[in-house]
From TrEMBL:
<dbReference type="InterPro" id="IPR013551">
    <property type="entry name" value="YicC-like_C"/>
</dbReference>
<dbReference type="InterPro" id="IPR005229">
    <property type="entry name" value="YicC/YloC-like"/>
</dbReference>
<dbReference type="Pfam" id="PF08340">
    <property type="entry name" value="YicC-like_C"/>
</dbReference>
<protein>
    <submittedName>
        <fullName>YicC family protein</fullName>
    </submittedName>
</protein>
<keyword id="KW-0540">Nuclease</keyword>
<feature type="domain" description="Endoribonuclease YicC-like C-terminal">
    <location>
        <begin position="173"/>
        <end position="293"/>
    </location>
</feature>
<feature type="domain" description="Endoribonuclease YicC-like N-terminal">
    <location>
        <begin position="2"/>
        <end position="156"/>
    </location>
</feature>
<comment type="similarity">
    <text>Belongs to the YicC/YloC family.</text>
</comment>
<keyword id="KW-0378">Hydrolase</keyword>
<dbReference type="InterPro" id="IPR013527">
    <property type="entry name" value="YicC-like_N"/>
</dbReference>
<dbReference type="Pfam" id="PF03755">
    <property type="entry name" value="YicC-like_N"/>
</dbReference>
<keyword id="KW-0255">Endonuclease</keyword>
């Protein structure tokens, strides 16, 4: 089963008061490229996320967007250093007493002094965090893989259809090939008679030698055999359960090369038109192959 490199998946998960949402988007890429955007405090999990993605996908550019929300208590602690606050208060009262001035000592005044109030982050359970994130990530990956497989099924149907059309064109070329030499011999004789006196005696040996030379130069049997072989390889590769995009692209290059050779050697208008049809199908197939994992 082939897979497309285009897809999207979203996954959510909640463990305790922790909620993660993961969105994955994949597009065409020659190799495997993973881009991850997540809250800064979870950057230590980036490599683990990358490994999970790569274990499910072999090729393409994957963009992962991860958001986090805590629906319970805040993950911030506000701590008060009471001994320090008392010392500040003693100092203020002493100033009031010794300088005989009235002061308005309030809680807000003392709270403004350095280090009286401290903001601290609560320690997180890293295993619990990863468990929650991994579940959301796996849910998103499942959706993404399913979408890529569904798109891959459509690509496979289209490629097989075009491959069958190509086989038909090659079969027509194979049937046409032997006729080319016969037509060349007839045209050669007619041309000679047209130029020379019709009563001029033709040298059958010279004509046969000329026709044999033409037949040798225009022989496309090997190219047809190789093209059939590549077509069969392409068809068999479509049934493999692996990343086959680059292999298919290589086979298309070889198929296109054989088609070009057939067109240049055959020296025949009908075959040239059939080659144009074949190359048109190859071009459409190449566009599809660019999107296969």
């Amino acid at each position: 089963m082939i897979k497309s490199m285009t897809g999207f998946g979203r996954g959510d998960s909640q463990v305790g008061d922790k909620c993660f949402q993961v969105e994955l988007k994949s597009v065409n890429h020659r190799y495997m490229d993973v881009s991850i955007k997540l809250p800064k405090k979870f950057t230590y999990l980036e490599e683990s996320i990358r490994k999970v993605i790569k274990s499910n996908i072999q090729r393409g550019r994957i963009e992962a967007y991860i958001t986090y929300e805590s629906i319970g208590e805040s993950d911030i602690n506000v701590a008060v250093d009471m001994p320090l606050a008392k010392e500040y208060l003693k100092a203020l009262l002493r100033i009031e007493e010794e300088l005989s001035i009235e002061t308005d000592v309030t809680t807000s005044v003392i709270a403004r002094f350095p280090d009286v109030i401290k903001i601290e982050k609560k320690e997180e359970n890293e295993d619990e965090i990863w468990q929650c994130l991994q579940e959301a990530l796996n849910n998103a990956l499942n959706q993404l893989v399913i979408m890529r497989q569904e798109e891959g099924d459509k690509l496979q149907v289209d490629l097989l259809k075009r491959l069958n059309k190509t086989r038909d064109f090659v079969a027509q070329i194979k049937d046409r090939s032997p006729i080319i030499v016969q037509e060349y011999r007839q045209k050669l004789i007619e041309r000679i008679k047209e130029i020379l006196d019709e009563e001029f005696s033709l040298d059958d040996n010279r004509v046969a030698a000329e026709v044999a030379l033409f037949a040798d130069k225009s022989n496309i049997t090997e190219e047809i055999v190789r093209l059939y072989s590549h077509i069969n390889q392409f068809s068999n590769t479509l049934q493999e359960d692996d990343a086959i995009g680059r292999k298919l692209d290589f086979l298309l290059q070889e198929m296109n090369r054989e088609a070009n050779t057939i067109g240049s050697k055959a020296n025949d208008l009908i075959i040239a038109n059939l080659v144009i049809n074949i190359k048109s199908e190859f071009e459409k197939m190449r566009e599809q192959v660019q999107n296969i994992e």
